[in-house]
Write a structure and sequence with these properties.
By secondary structure, the chain is an alpha/beta fold. The chain has helices at residues 40-47, 69-74, 91-101, 106-119, 135-147, 165-180, 192-198, 216-222, 229-237, and strands spanning 2-11, 14-24, 28-33, 55-60, 63-64, 76-79, 153-157, 184-188, 201-206, 209-214. It has 2 domains: 2-75 and 151-245, P-loop containing nucleotide triphosphate hydrolases (Rossmann fold), CATH 3.40.50; 86-150, no CATH class. It is built from 9 helices and 10 strands. Helix 3 (91-101) packs parallel to helix 5. The longest helix is centred in the last third of the chain and has 16 residues, at 165-180.
Length: 252
């Protein structure tokens, strides 16, 4: 469903993503972990079509993001790490705008908006202007917009930032439900407990290269002494100051 093939992204002399290959099947949530500057957000922006790869390619539901951008984006949703809304639109108006961008019928859009506002408990303030929203309120509207057109692939960067515990639980439940319905999800997060709780597979990136990937149980076998994902992550990335320090691990 989402196929990242030998992806490389350079900014001048700096290589931010280095020959990265990941494949995420329909019905799978893949947690993407790494330190700040490891290459997670650059990878995600290449997947979303916001950056053009220096090498390799990204395919979404069989469509190359670089050569078939409209077809790829029609089945993709992207939630950035900083939720952006149009300040002079209400949350409801923003959702309607997004629904029309994806070609939803007025009836389907209206029904979908009502469902999202109910799900994220946003009915009480959905008609207020976005300029008055807190970070958590913005995040709930942005995630609602991403789910509105029932995408096949969701790419989400730090989904829990700014959310209260109740909303965070709702997001986790919704993401798992979408996966059970056949959606493929790439989720970048620093909240390792969330990755441990909801991910089917986990990939750890450092210096733009994939160090290791697998289920949590598989990763634990690489570091038997680790009792939590946090311990495992620190152990695996401790000596990864350069690509040469990365352990030989699957890179697909």
């Amino acid at each position: 469903m989402l196929c990242i093939e030998h992806l490389t992204k350079r900014f001048g002399p700096k290589t931010a993503v280095d020959d990265l290959s990941i494949e995420i099947a329909a019905g799978e949530l893949y947690a993407f972990l790494g330190h700040n500057g490891a290459g997670k957000t650059t990878t995600i922006k290449c997947v979303a079509g916001l950056l053009r790869p220096s090498g390799g390619r990204v395919r979404v539901d069989g469509h190359d993001v670089s050569t078939e951008p409209l077809a790829a984006k029609a089945v993709l949703s992207y939630v950035p790490d900083q939720p952006y809304l149009y300040e002079k639109l209400s949350g409801r108006e923003f959702l309607g705008f997004v629904g029309r961008l994806y070609g939803m019928t007025p009836a389907a859009c209206e029904d979908g908006i009502a469902e999202m506002l109910r799900l994220f408990e946003a009915e009480a303030w959905a008609d207020d202007l976005a300029e008055n929203y807190s970070h958590g309120m913005r995040q709930r509207i942005v995630i609602s917009a991403a789910l509105l057109h029932d995408p096949k692939v969701i790419v989400i960067d730090e989904p829990m930032v700014g959310l209260d515990p109740r909303s965070a639980r709702t997001v986790k439940q919704v993401l798992r439900q979408r996966v059970e319905d056949g959606c493929a999800i790439l989720m970048s997060t620093h909240t390792l407990s969330v990755a441990e709780e909801v991910a089917d597979r986990i990939g750890i990136i450092e210096n733009g290269r994939l160090l290791v990937e697998g289920t949590y149980a598989e990763l634990r076998r690489t570091v038997p002494s680790s009792e939590r994902l946090e311990d495992l992550f620190i152990e695996l990335t401790n000596g990864a100051a350069s690509p040469a320090a990365a352990p030989s691990a699957p890179e697909s």
